[in-house]
């Protein structure tokens, strides 16, 4: 999105101008160059995710690129903590010499239980090394939580991971066993040499009075479309998931970018009104967090962005909240000063 700066500078100088910042694919880089917006491209995070990106692009192996998803968790966040750079996508980043993929001494039959990101990456590496790899997944598709983690605003690049692994499963001959619930008996029957358990985790249900009411849903159910969205929502938990859920709920039903472009281009709507419809929160959202600070697990480069979005969307953020009871249309809690507070007329309660 900052290529316009390079383009403007290029108009006034005679030296080569480089453009950078989230130019994360060879296709996008080529578009910038062909449009004459810059003379060369800088790639940072993309080369941490896949150091061989330029080589693969030159060969035309674009589908083999391990795409950066802009999570910042292992790169920018670690830099601000004065820690070594790692990568959510590239487990070998910074440890290439100690994690060399050595030739096989013995080919093994590998059983991977679960096709979330951990199971998929374990299967990919095992297959590259030459093992016979089988993935067992109880659902009818791969990805696990990857299928919903890309839904919150700003996380759509996570969806690319599913596309990547779908290709690698085919390329490396990994055998898929979908809709297969695995038991000890099935493992014994399959008789693998190695078993990787990558079944993920389940959310814990907090011991709150009324937590089993019908108007209470998990964050994942909201992201997957299996839970309704109300006009007045209360979120229990202000961690990373809770904050992203708050933004998702507040923006739910706002004008899409495609509609914005169409309506403003054809002057069907005033630009100021369209911008308001694009960015202004439509639903009332309150986040109740027990700890004194929100987003305790969020990195520095992500936290301020998400909290700023909450502020712009009118999300009410309350810390030090000790929830006492959830009713049919209310939530009762003690605030940081131990005073009893009630949020009335709520439609739904979501837990992160």
Automatic annotation (TrEMBL):
Cofactor: FMN
Range of residues in the leader sequence: none
InterPro entries listed in its UniProt record: Aldolase_TIM (IPR013785), FAD/NAD-bd_sf (IPR036188), FAD/NAD-binding_dom (IPR023753), NADH:flavin_oxidoreductase (IPR051793)
Keywords (A to Z) from UniProt: Flavoprotein, FMN, Oxidoreductase
Presence of keyword Oxidoreductase: yes
Keyword ATP-binding assigned: no
Pfam hit, one: Pyr_redox_2
FAD/NAD(P)-binding domain: residues covered: 108-331
GO molecular function: oxidoreductase activity
Protein name: FAD/NAD(P)-binding domain-containing protein
């Amino acid at each position: 999105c900052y290529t316009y700066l390079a383009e403007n500078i290029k108009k006034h100088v005679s030296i080569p101008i480089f453009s950078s910042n989230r130019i994360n694919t060879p296709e996008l880089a080529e578009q910038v160059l062909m449009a004459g917006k810059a003379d060369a491209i800088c790639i940072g995070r993309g080369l941490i995710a896949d150091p061989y990106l330029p080589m693969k692009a030159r060969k035309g192996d674009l589908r083999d690129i391990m795409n950066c998803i802009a999570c910042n968790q292992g790169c920018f966040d670690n830099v601000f903590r004065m820690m070594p750079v790692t990568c959510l996508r590239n487990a070998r980043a910074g440890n290439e010499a100690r994690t060399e993929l050595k030739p096989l001494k013995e080919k093994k039959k590998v059983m991977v239980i679960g096709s979330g990101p951990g199971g998929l990456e374990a299967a990919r590496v095992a297959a590259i090394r030459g093992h016979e790899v089988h993935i067992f997944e109880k659902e009818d598709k791969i990805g696990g939580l990857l299928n919903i983690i890309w839904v919150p605003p700003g996380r759509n690049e996570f969806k690319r991971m599913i596309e990547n692994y779908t290709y690698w499963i085919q390329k490396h001959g990994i055998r898929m066993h979908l809709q297969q619930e695995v038991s000890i008996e099935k493992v014994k029957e399959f008789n693998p040499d190695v078993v990787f358990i990558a079944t993920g985790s389940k959310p814990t249900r907090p011991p709150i009075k009324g937590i089993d009411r019908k108007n209470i849903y998990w964050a994942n159910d909201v992201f997957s479309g299996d839970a309704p969205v109300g006009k007045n929502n209360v979120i229990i938990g202000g961690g990373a998931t809770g904050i992203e859920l708050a933004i998702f709920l507040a923006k739910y039903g706002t004008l899409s970018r495609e509609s914005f472009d169409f309506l403003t281009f054809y002057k069907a709507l005033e630009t100021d009104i369209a911008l308001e419809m694009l960015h202004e929160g439509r639903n009332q959202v309150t986040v109740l967090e027990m700890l004194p600070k929100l987003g305790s697990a969020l990195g520095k480069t992500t936290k301020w962005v998400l909290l700023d979005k909450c502020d712009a969307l009118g999300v009410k953020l309350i810390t030090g909240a000790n929830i006492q009871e959830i009713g049919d249309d209310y939530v009762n809690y003690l605030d940081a000063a131990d005073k009893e507070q009630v949020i009335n007329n709520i439609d739904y309660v979501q837990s992160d």
